[in-house]
Records
---
Amino acid sequence: MAAEAKRILMVEDEKAIRDAVAAYLERDGFWVRSVGDGQSALEEFERHSFDMVILDLMLPKLSGERVCRAIRDTSDVPIIMLTAKGEVEDRIVGLELGADDYLVKPFSPRELIARVRALLRRVHYEQEPPMEVLDFGDLVVDITGHKVTVDGKVVDLTASEFKLLTTLARYPGRVYTRMELVEKVLGYDFEGYERTIDSHVKNLRAKLGDDPRNPKWLYTVHGVGYRFEVPRKDPAAS
Ligand code: CA
């Protein structure tokens, strides 16, 4: 075990998956504790400090939902939720409970490792103080100056659109649920206002000239919410 090995708590009641994932993570240099039910997960979480929790949603004794809530009461450790195939509702539940990412079963161990590494990088980045000018080349979001420009031209945004854009753009790649955006952008957390976010996104896209069918920055995550991406430089383009 390397001194700086990242510590992962793996919670999954299907032994075959649990053992396979643990083996892959260990081979990749992680320090892993794995348990098969929710109660043991919380006990293990109390006992050690972890850099990440991989948490199955459907668990005996204490559900993944309850475990996630209990962990979030005391900790902001990154959590990846494992959900069954196609259960969109479960993914939303996971993200709204405070999980950072989710993975739909069946997944390949390589995919899991990629997600784990990406999330650890993102958490590291989020711990840095947020930049006050987000410069994405043709899109510049000046948070202190409350100004947005596309190709050097100032884009006139409402307060909500500005808040929406800065919320998403501060953490590229992070998926925000509509409920999270309602809270962050509108400042309240009533259910039923998720569609308001859709309208703000629609207006924001129109003002930025971002085509929803071929997005450059603002991506719809179907059945969940939205995320901002930094456009990749295409080395083939001139
Ligand atoms: Ca399960």
---
Amino acid sequence: MPRIAVVPGDGIGIDVTREAVKVLEKLSEISKLKLELVHFDYGADKYLKTGISLPDEAIEDFGKNYDAIFMGALGDPRIPDMAHAKDILLGARFKLDLYVNFRPVRLLDERLSPLRGKGVKEIDFVVFRENTEGIYAGIGGNIKKGTPDEVAIQESLNTRKGVERIIRYAFEHAKKFNLPKLTMSDKGNAMQFEGDLWLRTFEEVGEEYPDIEKEHMYIDALVMQLVKNPERFNAIVTCNMFGDIVTDLGGILQGGLGIAASGNINPEGVSMFEPVHGSAPKYAGTNTANPIAAILTAQMMLDHLGYAREAELVMKAVTKAIRTDNSTRDLGGKLGTREVGDYICSELERTAG
Ligand code: NAD
Ligand code: IPM
Ligand code: MN
């Protein structure tokens, strides 16, 4: 039986994880799905009380004894430097070598499109964000802090191995799902060393995929095109930071951060699933956060674990919830977080057969 480590985290992470867990438990009742869900209280409260963020032993335990990690969100105004969140989120991504950040962008209902004339046919692409290198590597430092001569340096780390494996993963995905084109985006006109490595690697790996169209676009042009002509994209591969930025834009294109799902994948090991959104502290505990991003993240996890049928059921139930306005106010609905979870569970029960 697959074991899942559940880390609700902070703020609305706790509210939306509760609903995703409810959906997983409902599926266990009505389908062949059997999961063991083990909860962990890593997050701001624990960190403030004990100084523990995410110990190395816990990461080791997750890597050895679990089939996946489900995470809510991290971030708390009481910890302005985000120390615990960095340890937990980036710690897991780096230490478990979750090098693929997979963030699909798919509009599920025309009415949620923020773009005039662009609907479900036009807004449908996937983003592969490099997840273990780049500016996130934490290389740098400062001197003369607090003086007029202060210097801060933040380096971007790019290795041939790291760039090659994310690009190859994106090509493999495009091949598997018959996506006609892969777009690689960088800022090689300003960041020449990094850009050179990315472009050469893209071209070299691309030779192994003669049937997939290869496109290169600078990141500034890409964000403009994503708004102007989202239909021209099938799959995008990019570095850690550009991927972070582009997937918030992607979130809005599909109806908001309340819907955007994300997976941190290690194709050879244990993977971690978390919505794109953060802990939105303002809305924590108010029963207003949209749980759909978390529920679609659970759906992605099910698919990853080989439960394609159950994943499909969840996708159908979520689509119905959105199309019938059984949604939270960010999508124009009137339901609360819990009620959306309940609706999706009742749809699952109705359709499971
Ligand atoms: P955020 O994603 O938490 O919230 C931004 C805004 O998006 C919210 O004010 C809200 O209007 C909307 N929103 C987000 N999720 C929603 C949902 N489920 N339902 C309805 N509306 C939703 O981003 P932020 O305010 O920049 O960051 C808050 C904290 O979260 C910070 O500490 C930040 O560092 C952290 N963060 C964590 C993650 C993560 O854990 N993966 C991701 C992003 C930000
Ligand atoms: C995300 C978040 C994180 C990131 C933050 C919280 C460090 O924005 O998962 O997209 O930048 O990766
Ligand atoms: Mn982000």
